[in-house]
């Protein structure tokens, strides 16, 4: 039986808009733990991590709240790594997407220790590949991908003990539709594999996911970093940085079910749920359904 551990990271320290700090509690209110337990999973709620409050200051050298973001990520890194070492599957409940730095650095460290191959699926409207010189805002939730690839200040890039934590070929981005001008250049230079919305429009979600999941084998640790703004805001309004034109509810269900079909999902981030932007917690309830699909809920026995 799969053992899951929920880890709350209630902070919006890396975001421009406040409210993602309430995300973990909204997912609990939407009965995430109970929903997963119905599928025969053993789910422990590890409660919330703690870290510095949001000082709501402007950027310094192109970074907002660098020191506080580092503190939160260290805490996330420690919790995720410990969970993996105990043989459990960590489910990080965000919080803003800057926390993926600590989460994925921990997964990468664990994979190095176990001699496993890591594949990260980055489901997001945004590429999150800015740097302090290209960012229009200084918000670090726009920089986790570059940080994990070793671009940025030491205290962010070295969480997890190895710089870079990942090579670009370990990440596949899906659903991207909002990229800043200089960030576009970064993606090109880094050679990141990006399945943007045009690719999904042209090829459909099934072919896109077959491509994104290609090469997975018994030796692969699959990590999903799921930013809720991946979804079209018409169905998932509860996010701080909504971008129109995302995958529909059905397309997202297919995406999740195809990930589940691999049987390789071994760690998960659920990020950027912002109840302050939501309508009666509908986005949180939708996310719970999608996470159930990630862990094998299906209409029929397949």
From TrEMBL:
This protein's pathway: Nitrogen metabolism; urea cycle; L-ornithine and urea from L-arginine: step 1/1
User: Which Pfam families does the UniProt record give?
Assistant: Arginase
Q: Which GO MF term does the entry hold, naming one?
A: arginase activity
**Names of required cofactors:** Mn(2+)
Cofactor mode of binding and number, as noted: Binds 2 manganese ions per subunit.
What's the domain of life for this entry?
Answer: Bacteria
Q: According to its UniProt record, which reaction does this protein catalyse?
A: L-arginine + H2O = urea + L-ornithine
Q: Which CDD domains match?
A: Arginase (cd09989)
Q: What is its EC number?
A: 3.5.3.1
Q: What UniProt keywords apply to this chain's record, in alphabetical order?
A: Arginine metabolism, Hydrolase, Manganese, Metal-binding
**Annotated family:** Belongs to the arginase family.
Give the protein name, as stated in the record. Arginase
Task: Give the originating organism.
Answer: Herbaspirillum rhizosphaerae
**From which lineage does this chain's organism come?**
Bacteria, Pseudomonadati, Pseudomonadota, Betaproteobacteria, Burkholderiales
């Amino acid at each position: 039986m799969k053992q899951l551990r929920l880890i709350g990271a209630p902070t919006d320290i890396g975001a421009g808009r406040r409210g993602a700090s309430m995300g973990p509690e909204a997912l609990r209110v939407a009965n995430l733990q109970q929903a997963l337990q119905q599928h025969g999973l053993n789910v422990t709620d590890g409660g919330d991590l703690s870290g510095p409050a949001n000082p709501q200051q402007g950027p310094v050298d192109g970074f907002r709240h660098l020191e506080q973001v580092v503190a939160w990520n260290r805490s996330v890194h420690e919790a995720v790594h410990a969970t993996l070492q105990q043989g459990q599957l960590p489910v990080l409940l965000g919080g803003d997407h800057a926390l993926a730095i600590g989460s994925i650095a921990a997964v990468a460290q664990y994979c190095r220790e176990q001699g496993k191959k890591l594949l990260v699926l980055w489901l997001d409207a945004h590429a999150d590949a800015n740097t302090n010189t290209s960012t229009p805002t200084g918000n670090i939730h726009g920089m986790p991908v570059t940080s994990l690839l070793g671009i940025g200040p030491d205290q962010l890039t070295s969480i997890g003990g190895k710089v870079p934590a990942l090579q670009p070929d370990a990440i596949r981005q899906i659903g991207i539709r909002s990229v800043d001008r200089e960030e576009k250049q970064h993606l090109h230079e880094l050679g990141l594999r990006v399945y943007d919305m045009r690719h999904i429009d042209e090829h459909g979600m099934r072919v896109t996911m077959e491509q994104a999941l290609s090469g997975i084998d018994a030796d692969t640790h699959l990590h999903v970093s799921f930013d809720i703004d991946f979804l079209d805001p018409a169905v998932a309004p509860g996010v701080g940085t909504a971008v129109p034109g995302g995958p529909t509810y059905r397309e997202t269900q297919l995406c999740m079910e195809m990930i589940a079909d691999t049987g390789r999902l071994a760690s998960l981030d659920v990020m950027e749920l912002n109840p302050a932007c939501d309508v009666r917690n509908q986005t949180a309830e939708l996310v719970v359904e999608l996470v159930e699909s990630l862990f094998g809920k299906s209409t029929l026995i397949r």
